[in-house]
Amino acid sequence: MSHALEQDRSPARILVVDDNPTNRYVLATTLRRAGHQVVEAEDGTRALELLGSDGTEPPEAAVVDVRLPDMTGLEVCERIKSDPVTASIPVINISASAITVEDRTQGLYRGADAYLVEPIAPDELLATITASLRYARARRRAERLAERLHLLNRVTLALYSAPDANELVRATAKGAAAIFRCDAAAVLTTPQGSPVVAHTWHDDAADARSAEPQVHPAPGWCQESGRVGAWITGQAVPLPCLRGGPQDAANRRVVVGRAKAERPPVALLVPADVLTTQDDERLLTQLAQACALALEALRSYSEEHALALTLQRSFLPESLPKTARAELAVRYLPASEHTEIGGDFYEAIDTPAGLVVAVGDVAGHSLDAAMVMGQVRHALRAYATEGHPPEVILSRLDRLLTTVEPGASVTLCVVLVAHDSGTLHIANAGHLPPLLRAPDGTTAYVTEHGPLLGLGLSHPPARRVTAQPGTLLLLVTDGLIERRNVDLRTSLESLAEVAGEGSADPEETCARLLDRLSPDGNDDVALMAVRLNPVTTG
What we know:
This protein is an alpha+beta fold. The protein contains 13 helices and 20 strands. It has helices at about 5-10, 20-35, 45-50, 75-80, 100-110, 120-160, 165-180, 230, 280-315, 365-385, 390-405, 490-500, 505-515; strands at about 15, 35-40, 60-65, 90-95, 115, 185-190, 195-200, 215, 250-255, 265-270, 325-335, 345-350, 355-360, 410-420, 425-430, 435, 445, 465, 470-475, 525-530. The strands form four sheets. The chain has a five-stranded parallel beta sheet, sandwiched between helices. A five-stranded antiparallel beta sheet has the order 8-7-6-10-9. A five-stranded antiparallel beta sheet has the order 11-20-19-16-17, with helices on one face. Strand 12 and strand 13 (about 355-360) form a beta hairpin.
């Protein structure tokens, strides 16, 4: 016998409405002997009060006499069927006097699910009750399944929208709790190899006002597929944040999902009594599998991002040149792991003419941007080594881009710090203006610039600026200061203000800027600080 059929034949709470005490007793006794729970009412008004409006559990079926003292049984039936809360309750009309075909037809038309004529044989009454319950329960199961499938669809979308594993495990536990209307827990291993668990109940130390599931490390999580069930039942290392111990194992239902056989499993835990049908089992399994697939997508993205970041870092200089003319410090911060890599870069080359420093940014965020960045940086290094001045370097890079990478665009600021004088040769191709901090702490931007690279336009001569020893030169990319809904001029003012405070030491300045300006992680950050030393002769 199927589980659903067993449910359809299981006892129910039944309302019996009849103004005749003898008839009511006979009906109630027959139903009680069959195992049903019976609630009795002597008229229509009392029957409607017992339908759950007072907070009590509503009946699953109603047996209503057609002739009642305050209203007809047909009216009671209509009232039951017109209320969305009680419309699914099957109603069986009975009568010893209204027994014609017209009476029975009217009763069925007005909402009754069955119409019996007294005297009623006990077997006929019980069979009618069973048939009515079977239909009503099947309908409720279908409606509940449709609702849960709708929730599963919404939860699955939330899983694939989760930006990281912690949000994923939280969304999974929250989704299981919403679908099955119970406390739930989810356990998984992050792409970085850290097991975490999320549960919908609150720890004693947690904020009881929080509506979100609590997320914790899961040091007792067993990743071996053969031990998952044993761990959940407490035979392996239990998790301290999961309520209950081995004695409560029989009251839990665990479903495990995996995207690949070699991957650590995802496990969902719910109370065993909430899974009443095979459809419920399948829903929980589907949710676990959706979580596993979403986790696999996160893992793939994390691996690809790490690979691209490694490639991007390989394009950056391994070390800075050591020269008596200046002290250098750099910082490079990639965007957060949820953001595609960009094309920010820096360069520093000591040439016979002087120290060439540069900071640039390739437009876009992708592996292609990083590849363009690598080409531009290596070409810049070659042109600088050949002894070309900054404006010529920009012109040659522009020609390279329009020939080899048409459509790509780059902002770049190149500065030559002359060895034999205190002159800076600044050529800026559409990049943020370089900032100069004088030895007395005053700051000023060099705002002259030409077009960005990749447009095939000519570039103006480099701007020559005389700088005293002790002057600090700052070159940055927009990831350090640009913020959504903040005017760029305001951001540049903040940069100048922070740069003018405290020490002019390049390392300390870089640390202070990153601490005070707090990059938001939406873009890469390249930052170079150059403090000029006195010109040496001979």
